[in-house]
Write a structure and sequence with these properties.
The complex is a heterodimer. By secondary structure, chain A is mainly α. Chain A is about 75% helix and about 5% strand. Chain A contains 11 helices and 2 strands. Chain A has a two-stranded antiparallel sheet with strand order 1-2. In chain B, the strands form 3 sheets. Chain B has a 6-stranded mixed β-sheet with strand order 8-9-10-5-11-12, with helices on both faces. Chain B has helices at about 45-50, 75-80, 95-105, 115-120, 125, 140-150, 170-180, 195-200, 225-230; strands at about 5-10, 15, 20, 25-30, 35-40, 60-65, 65-70, 80-85, 155-160, 185-190, 205-210, 210-220. Classes of the chains: A mainly alpha, B alpha/beta. Chain A: Keywords: Amino-acid transport, Cell membrane, Membrane, Transmembrane, Transmembrane helix, Transport.
Chain lengths: ~290, ~240
């Protein structure tokens, strides 16, 4: 039963990792941009959530109503103002610029909020649990997982059932020909980044409710996100959710064997999958 | 003579340091069909990409309805009413047949062309509308590429190498459909390797040789000898 419990807790933890990864997967899928600052943007969302909920006396989840549009606006402006200028045939400029952005974000957060760990207060939600067949499941992890499934499903719906989704896929297929259809690729990329950072806002708030955070933790969130994206297969959103779950289960089962193995077990499973299936378990198939 | 819809004057198109076109002058009258012929590497595709905005040039080098468009981006050119059927079809592989057509019409320009009209022109596309575009044969893909451009309801449509790589029977079908397409008041520029077909569909013909216009004339009056000289540069 304890092993089953570890697996179930891992699946639920995977929901949080899928939230970390969904924005990365979307951005890579649309514009082949690897955003090194993604983890720091998650932490930025957590801090904005903290500030909003404290200042307005809101529950952190309600703060999302303000933080998600704010992050979307930041994403659109960031893409139009800076990142679009780095995109081209060379993969290095966007890597360097987003790395620089990561350093700037970390130091700005340090300056504003100090290095003291912070945490959001979500009241009873943090400790509420339900018992299912002798296994106690936290309401917060269940909610996180449900939100991750809903977000991946919604993103998938946008991609395959809306004009915006068609524009994302067409621009991803061939930028030049997409421009011939009257699509301004700078704006299409802006909308993609806005959508990705709105999802990042959700990830940041759930992170901030679940655990304490400080300005330096973005890097490890970026790694978890990357691992989930790569395990699942680049550009496949349901694959990203599966990747998050596999990573979560690897970590909780690893921790069950030895508490010190939690992170290492996740990295080892990631490396094993990368060695056996370099394109991930569910790579996007086109053509 | 009707007013020109497209005027190209002294177009020097470049890919980085490489100059592909040298002082190209060209005029297309409203409602006319203009054919461009020339050997491989003569600059035909560069000319098409320049008109469509995929290669940006001096603003005044290309005018559309007397408005300079030479320096505009491709999406801005498209919204003004110019559509390109690119060489090699270049459909979007992650979009279905119908989605490829729908994205062609996203600029919202009004006109006679709709999904229904494209399906009546190419009925096979309606049967295959849910399939991935890349699962179609070359000829059917060309129909999607043409339909995608028509969905934009352009005033000027550019066909780049419309029959390249297609079976003769497919080429025949596409050429049968073309008069119906361009008789709707649309003007057209057609790049074609097959000189007989190019002359049969157009009212004027231009020949490019090494990036320069080597022949210009009415399709009905240019002689085979003139074309051979202009095409191969043989004196």
């Amino acid at each position: 039963m304890e092993w089953l419990n570890a697996v179930i807790q891992g699946v639920l933890l995977g929901g949080l990792y899928a939230l970390f990864a969904a924005g990365l997967s979307l951005i890579f899928g649309v514009m082949r941009l690897v955003n090194i600052a993604h983890g720091d943007l998650i932490v930025l969302a957590a801090y904005l959530g903290l500030t909003t909920s404290v200042a307005l006396g809101l529950h952190p989840l309600l703060a999302l109503v303000l933080v998600a549009p704010a992050l979307a606006a930041i994403g659109f402006l960031l893409q139009i103002g800076i990142l679009n200028r780095t995109l081209g045939n060379d993969i290095l400029p966007p890597l360097l610029v987003t790395f620089g952005l990561s350093v700037i974000l970390q130091n700005a957060l340090l300056e504003i909020y100090t290095a003291d760990p912070q945490k959001m207060d979500a009241g009873a939600l943090e400790t509420a649990s339900v018992s299912l067949g002798g296994i106690s499941l936290g309401v917060l992890p269940l909610l996180t997982f449900a939100v991750a499934v809903a977000i991946v499903g919604a993103l998938q719906w946008v991609f395959y059932n809306t004009a915006l989704g068609r524009a994302f896929r067409a621009t991803s297929d061939n930028q030049d020909i997409a421009q011939l259809m009257g699509l301004n690729k700078a704006h299409v990329y802006g909308y993609a980044m806005a959508l990705a950072l709105a999802v990042t806002a959700v990830a940041g708030i759930f992170l901030g409710i679940r655990t304490s955070f400080d300005p330096a933790i973005g890097g490890s969130r970026l790694i978890f996100g990357f691992e989930a994206v790569i395990i699942g297969g680049l550009g496949n959103l349901w694959g990203t959710l599966a990747g998050g779950v596999i990573l979560g289960v690897a970590q909780t089962v690893g921790a069950k064997i030895d508490p010190g193995w939690q992170l290492l077990a996740g990295h080892i499973v990631f490396l094993l999958i990368l060695a056996v299936r370099p394109s991930g378990l569910f790579p996007k198939v086109t053509g | 003579m009707p007013d020109p819809i497209l005027q190209i004057a002294g177009l020097d198109a470049r890919y980085g340091d490489f100059q592909a076109l040298y002082g190209v002058d060209m005029t297309l009258a409203e409602g006319d069909v203009l054919a461009i012929i020339g050997a491989n590497g003569a600059g035909k595709t560069t000319l098409m990409r320049s008109i469509a905005g995929l290669i940006r040039n001096g603003a005044d080098e290309i005018k559309f309805r007397n408005v300079p468009i030479g320096a505009l981006r491709a999406d801005q050119v498209a919204r003004r009413g110019i559509a390109l059927v690119p060489e090699g079809r270049q459909l979007f592989p992650s979009l279905s047949v119908e989605e490829n057509l729908l994205i062609g019409g996203r600029s919202g320009r009004q006109g006679p062309w709709s999904l229904k009209r494209v399906y009546s022109l190419f009925p096979i596309l309606e049967e295959r509308k849910r399939q991935p575009s890349t699962s179609l044969s070359g000829g059917q893909q060309q129909m999607v590429a043409i339909g995608r451009a028509l969905m934009a309801n352009p005033d000027l449509i550019l066909f780049d190498e419309i029959s390249l790589g297609l079976a003769p029977i497919v080429i025949r079908d596409i050429y049968r459909a073309l008069p119906g397409i361009v008789s709707q008041g649309m003007s057209a520029v057609i790049v074609e390797q097959d000189i007989t077909k190019a002359l049969s569909i157009s009212s004027r013909v231009y020949c490019l040789q090494e990036g320069r216009v080597s022949l210009e004339g009415a399709s009905t009056t240019v002689s085979r000898e003139d074309i051979s000289r202009a095409y191969f540069g043989i004196e």
